[in-house]
Each structure stands twice: as C-alpha cells, then as structure tokens.
C-alpha cells in the first residue's frame, strides 16, 4: 500500500518536510516512490506538485492525517474527499 506522508529533512529544531509517496513498510527516511511536495512548518510555506498528487491519489495512495490537512488547506481533496472519509 502506498501512502502520501512527510519525510523529515533539516537540522535539529529546524525541521522541514518533503511530502512523498512511499510504501507503508518503509521507514520515515526510507526510499520514496516520488516527491510530490514540500512543507516548512516554521515559515508555513507549502509547495505542492498537484498533477503528481492527483496521480498517486487516483492510483489508490492514502494520505496521512497531516498530509490530508495540508491538502485540504490547498483545496486539492475536493474530488477525493468521499473516498477518503470511508477509510
């Protein structure tokens, strides 16, 4: 199963995250299938590759709660909300 989740980068106390599509059995910094975005919680900056995100969602990838909140703020999940609420 594939998930859209955060992958931690940066130094201590200054973490930044990449939003990646990754197999659920991989560890947090493990090998990802594709990078689909970037999130910096300190400056609250977000970059999302919308076509890549939609591609993985159409193939059945499930976002984690944190990534789902980020995608809701960007209003990307309007098409996929009925499917995600059932899970």
UniProtKB/TrEMBL annotation:
Keywords carried by this UniProt record: Chloroplast, Plastid, Ribonucleoprotein, Ribosomal protein
Cell compartment(s), UniProt: Plastid, Chloroplast
Keyword Ribonucleoprotein: yes
Pfam families linked to this entry: Ribosomal_S16
GO cellular component, one term: small ribosomal subunit
GO molecular function, one term: structural constituent of ribosome
Biological process according to GO: mitochondrial translation
Primary location recorded for the protein, binned into one broad class: plastid
Family: Belongs to the bacterial ribosomal protein bS16 family.
Protein name: Small ribosomal subunit protein bS16c
Species this chain originates from: Rhododendron huadingense
Name of the gene encoding the protein in the UniProt record: rps16
